[in-house]
Amino acid sequence: MPSEIHRMNTLCIIGAGQLGSRHLQALKMVLQPLHITIVDPSEESLKRAEERYQLATGSAHHQLRYVKTLGDTAQSFDLVIIATTSNYRREVVEKLFETCSVKSMILEKILFQRYEDYQKVEQLLEKNHCQAWVNCSMRAMTFYAELPKKIQSGPLTYLVTGSQYGLITNIIHYIDHIAYLTGCYDYEVITGALDPTPIDSKRPGFLELNGTLSVHFKDGSHGTFTCFPDGEIPFLVEIHAKEYRCIVRENERKAWESSQKNNWQWQEVNAEIPFQSQMTATLTENILKTGACPLIPYKKAAQLHLTLLEALRAFLNTSSGKKFDYYPFT
Ligand SMILES: NC(=O)c1ccc[n+]([C@@H]2O[C@H](COP(=O)([O-])OP(=O)(O)OC[C@H]3O[C@@H](n4cnc5c(N)ncnc54)[C@H](O)[C@@H]3O)[C@@H](O)[C@H]2O)c1
Q: Which of 12, 14, 18 for a ligand 1 pocket mutation test, highest count of atoms within 8 Å of Cβ?
């Protein structure tokens, strides 16, 4: 009997910086041997990614290849993770499809810097029959993912507060979570209570904003996100519905819940917020095995991104005295 030959699954991480290296670390927990290509023009990023991989726990026997560019040879990948900053993301996707065939893709948020990038990349994904998701990861975290069962019915009031946590880079996670909980993707952004002067993002070359931003969803749900420019008020998430409410202290991995079913008695529960260096393992295994992924599909994510980013661009153009024809965030 001829023995069955299994092709090793092929993965590629493009952008091996702070987050890309965490995606790589997670892959060490995938038991099935993989062929992984890590691409980053920065020697320093590649070196740090390699060090982090070596330090990570896991007993995998993967074949790893660290390269500065993908080159011009045709390659085929089962999964590609794009973890560069937003300014390079479209160009990286375009270059990838010039020579490679890709079955599945995970793109980091914030997706892209220009309005037209969103449709261009959507067309490329369709043309190349590549299924893609965006790494808004609350949908993949057990506590947050299981809330629809507890909430029962909307609309929701969703509040996020904290100090110096990177409002704009993080807000898309919470907007995505509201959409996940309610099934409503249609919303408006109210920017009037944001601080008018942008600040530098912790990632060089990008901007951030402080103050309060609100979102009103068509189903009647509301979100209010506040980031204080100073102080150390701990990060807090509150979700309120007619039959359920919770307070999440993410840093402590704890939540307090109360519901009509339990006569509004408060209960303390664990709220696991896994690191990216843990999450990508399960996401990858599922995609390779079943082709499915709990993250938000590309097209829906693009819709959520554009509503937010266009409102922020309009806000910057009236408040900062500059004219932005792109979204200076990542
Ligand atoms: N989903 C999440 O929870 C989450 C968390 C953190 C960061 N992020 C997002 O991930 C992105 C990256 O953040 P980071 O902190 O890792 O930034 P980073 O600057 O540390 O890493 C970006 C890397 O991309 C590399 N790069 C630039 N051009 C490239 C190219 N053409 N090909 C390959 N690599 C290239 C850079 O050399 C760098 O190493 C940001 O958009 C950020 O918002 C998402």
A: 18
